[in-house]
Structures are given as C-alpha cells and as structure tokens.
Amino acid sequence: DGGITQSPKYLFRKEGQNVTLSCEQNLNHDAMYWYRQDPGQGLRLIYYSQIVNDFQKGDIAEGYSVSREKKESFPLTVTSAQKNPTAFYLCASSSTPGGQAYNEQFFGPGTRLTVL
Amino acid sequence: DAKTTQPPSMDCAEGRAANLPCNHSTISGNEYVYWYRQIHSQGPQYIIHGLKNNETNEMASLIITEDRKSSTLILPHATLRDTAVYYCIVRALYNAGNNRKLIWGLGTSLAVNP
C-alpha cells in the first residue's frame, strides 16, 4: 500500500540528546514537510522540501535540522538547541502540482517525542 | 494566506448531518478552501477542497457562499468515527517560489454522540 510511515510512534530521550525522527513515503511525491503539534494547538511548519537535496525553513525551524538525500526520505533531527522539544511530530508529503492548485497533503501517523 | 475562524467545538447526534462552519472573510480570488480532520493522536486526513463551486465526494460536501467569505463542511450522516478536530484552511494557487505550506488554526472539535 502507498503511504507515509513514521517511526517510532513513541520516543523518549534525555534532555541534551539529539534525536532523529524517521519519515518515509512511497507515493512518489516530490514535496515533504515536517510539522510540530502541541496539545490543543494547530500544526506548525518546521521544515519543508520541494525536491531532493533542497529544503527550506518553516515557521519554527530553530533547534531542528533535516536532510533530503532521497526522494522517499526526509528525516528530522531534534537537536539539544531546541528549548522545548516534547511534542507530537507529523510528517507529510504532496505531489508536484505542475501549476495546478490541488496539493492535498498526505500525513504519516506521527511520532510523539517526550524529553525527560 | 487568509486566516480562518471556526467555532472551537460542536456536537452532533449519530446519524444526523454535521454542518461545520468556517469564516474566511479575507480570502483572495486565487485561494482555495481545504478541509482536513484529525482523529485523536493521528495524522490529519484530507477531506475535500474547493474554489467557488460546491463540491461533494464520498466523505463530505463543501458549500462555499457566493461571496466566498464563508463555507460549510457537511457530513451527511455522522457516525461515531467522525469524532475529530476539523480544520478549515485557505491557500493560494501554486506558483513559482510558493512554498505550498498550509496554515493551520485550532479547528473545530466535533463530538458525535450516540
């Protein structure tokens, strides 16, 4: 089945440690995104990538880093510089619209990160 | 991108229609209206989108007012599995340099009751 996978579903880390969240898609989508969601809040964009080997900062990129070496993969690293990393992290992808407006985003199941 | 306003919560009886309103009074002519929903602790799920005509798919109907300043998502026969947070988002057409991001508000928490 086509879709987006994120692993692990739950992740615990000690304060000061870097941690990498995995995101893989087999939808052949060019664009991929990372969002953060805090309790009772909407999604906020961390980073996005429109094509391999290219990515752009979103609204809350400080303390995070990404890479896009393959079309299928867009891992997110939460560094020790992120002041409040405990949150629900969501990865999404969308196809290249080619000038069309339609750009439905497909989401993974999310990773809940808790920093102790 | 235009901002949207949605009621924080709504209730609906199982089997009845759920009508979720969204105000987007500053929407531009090239901005589409998208609806997503998020079941607790899961990733959001796309429902429907539209520009100015009413739209219907297997999940829902989208009614956009003629002046495009508001819209209503209709779930014709709500079930318990439709209990979720529903997000209304407006976004412009893709063009060169556009980052295609969606701006998410707080949404409407819909509770479908038996």
Characterise the protein shown here.
The complex is a heterodimer of chains A (116) and B (114). With 116 residues, chain A is an all-beta fold. Chain A contains no helices and 11 strands. In chain A, strands 2, 4, 5, 6, 9, 10 and 11 form a 7-stranded mixed sheet that branches. Chain A has a 4-stranded antiparallel sheet with strand order 1-3-8-7, with no helix packed on it. By secondary structure, chain B is mainly β. In chain B, the strands form 2 sheets. In chain B, strands 1-9-8-3-4 form a 5-stranded mixed sheet, with no helix packed on it. Chain B has a 4-stranded antiparallel sheet with strand order 2-7-6-5, with no helix packed on it. In chain B, strand 5 and strand 6 form a beta hairpin. Chain B is globular. Classes of the chains: A mainly beta (116), B mainly beta (114). Chains A and B meet through strand 4, strand 5, strand 9 and strand 10 of A and strand 3 and strand 4 of B.
Could you give a short description of this structure?
Chain A is globular and about 40 Å long. Chain A is mainly β.
Properties at a glance:
heterodimer, A: 4-stranded antiparallel β-sheet, about 50% strand, globular, B: about 110 residues
What's the topology here?
The complex is a heterodimer of chains A (116) and B (114).
Chain A: E1 4-7, E2 10-13, E3 19-25, E4 31-37, E5 43-51, E6 54-57, E7 64-66, E8 76-78, E9 87-94, E10 106-107, E11 111-115
Parallel strand pairs in A: 2-11
Antiparallel strand pairs in A: 1-3, 3-8, 4-5, 4-9, 5-6, 7-8, 9-10, 9-11
Chain B: E1 9-13, E2 18-23, E3 31-38, E4 45-50, E5 55-56, E6 61-64, E7 70-75, E8 84-92, E9 108-113
Parallel strand pairs in B: 1-9
Antiparallel strand pairs in B: 2-7, 3-4, 3-8, 5-6, 6-7, 8-9
The interface involving the most residues is between: A-B, 32 and 24 residues
Spatial extent as radius of gyration of chain B: 14 Å
Task: Specify the oligomeric state.
Answer: heterodimer
Q: What ranges of chain B have pLDDT less than 50 throughout 5 or more consecutive residues?
A: 95-99
**Could you give a short account of the major beta sheet of chain A?**
7 strands, mixed
- State the total count of DSSP E strands of chain A: 11
Bin the helical content of chain B.
Answer: under 10%
Mean pLDDT of chain B: 89
The ordered string of helix (H) and strand (E) elements of chain B is EEEEEEEEE
Mean pLDDT of chain A: 89
Radius of gyration of chain A from CA coordinates: 14 Å
- Stretches of chain A where pLDDT is under 50 for at least 5 consecutive residues are none
Biggest sheet overview of chain B: 5 strands, mixed
Q: Enumerate how many helices of chain B there are, as a single number.
A: 0
What is the string of helix and strand elements of chain A? Answer: EEEEEEEEEEE
Count the helices of chain A. How many? 0
Give the overall shape of chain A, derived from the CA principal axes.
globular
